[in-house]
Amino acid sequence: AGDYVDAHARKVGEVMTSEVAVVSPTDELSDVVQLMEKRRIKRVPVIDNGKLVGIVSRSDLVRALVHNLTREAKAHPHEQVADETIRDRILEVIDKEPWGPRFSSEVTVTGGVVDLYGTVTDERERTALIVAAEGVAGVKAVRDHLVWIEPTSGLVIGADEIR
Q1: Do 45 and 19 touch, CB atoms closer than 8 A?
Q2: How far is Cα 48 from Cα 55, in angstroms, rounded to an integer?
Q3: Out of 7, 44, 106, 112, which could bridge 117 as a Cys pair, Cβ 3.0 to 4.6 Å?
Q4: 43-60 residues labelled b (16+ CB within 10 A) or e (exposed)
Q5: How far apart are the C-alpha atoms of 132 and 125, rounded to whole Å?
Q6: Is the dihedral of CA 102, 103, 105, 106 positive or negative?
Q7: Residue-wise pLDDT tens for the chain (163 aa)?
Q8: d(CA 159, CA 153)
Q9: Would you call 92 helix, strand, or coil by DSSP?
Q10: Extended strands (E) in 14-150
Q11: Three-class DSSP labels, 61-112
């Protein structure tokens, strides 16, 4: 009967999954992979504060895995990377990317911990800066002190207010 409905249904409600598995933006990728394997699903909605903010697919996870494996292959885990080298590498990424807020951001590194300061006008810039910093060899943690300025109204929102 289920196969018949799947093959002949005309309405979304007749073929949709009613027990939806969801994740949050802060969930670890490994947990998402386990959920997808356990439930035998290819995509998972990402919910933040009760709102759909995205979808994670298997191809997204594969892309992230390949990126992480490539980054780990380049990094030498036992090699200590100097704070200044980490900072320079993060600034290189910012400089070569079209979204990079070159003149409105500051990067400091102490003991491998990166602090990001400055302003962004797009939430995606904030996320990209954090991801860029996390992707540099030797980075142990990233602390977000960025301020978002909404370009139309000029409203200023601090990092703590967004989360």
Answers
A1: no
A2: 12
A3: 106
A4: ebebeeeeeeeeebeeee
A5: 10
A6: positive
A7: 667 776 777 778 777 777 889 999 999 888 999 999 999 889 999 999 999 999 999 888 888 777 766 665 555 555 678 999 999 999 999 898 888 877 888 999 999 999 999 888 877 888 889 988 988 888 999 999 998 887 777 777 776 655 4
A8: 18
A9: helix
A10: 43-48, 51-57, 105-110, 113-120, 141-149
A11: HHHHHHHHHHHHHHCCCCCCCCHHHHHHHHHHHHHHCCCCCCCCEEEEEECC
Q: Which residues pair with 115 in a beta bridge?
A: 108, 143
Q: Show the tokens assigned to 77.
A: 């885990």
Give the whole-angstrom CA distance, residue 136 versus residue 139.
Answer: 6
Instruction: Write down the residue that tokens 């704070």 correspond to.
Output: 83
What is the spatial distance between Cα 103 and Cα 109, in angstroms, rounded to a whole number?
18
Do you know the residue count of the chain?
Answer: 163
- Residue 29 CA to residue 122 CA, distance in Å, equals 24
pLDDT at site 159: 63
Q: Which residue has the tokens 């949050």?
A: 24
Structure tokens, 100: 């990079």
